Description:
This protein has one domain: Four Helix Bundle (Hemerythrin (Met), subunit A) (Up-down Bundle). Helix content is 71%, strand content 0%. The chain has five helices and no strands.
Amino acid sequence: MGGVHHQPQGPAFDIVLLLHVACVVVGLATMVASAATATRLRRILPSTTELPEPLRRYFRSGTNWAARTVYGIPVFGFALLAMSAGAYTLRQGWVMGGLAVFVTVVLLAEGVLWPAERRLQVSLAAGGTGSPHDADAVRHDARVMALSATGALVLLIAGSVMMVAQP
């Protein structure tokens, strides 16, 4: 780790680090929930037209704000860089790698996962599993949501390993 002068310390640094880690943990949990919920929806669709209450609650209209906590990852990450007094810099490979992972997670979430989730909210709110076409669209969006959430989850885990290992 060339260029590391000292390990940053102090309560302010520790608090920002905890907030950074909390955003990662919440991001991981929301990706697990998204993948699991979409997978459950796909499994029960062929056998029922009435969704269980937990699925109806998950897919009710509105923004999944808990998932958006992933945006706190770079905010607190850049704060940690600024507070590190040069111990950590953007020139370090693990820092740039973490930033690249974050950008990929956001592109996947904003471009694929959350749009599929919104389409499911609209379809399920309108009772959109009545016709075979609607059921096919719901199954497709549930598959897209499950796969993209799983991909984002894998990326968040890889980024977390990179941040801890600091290769």
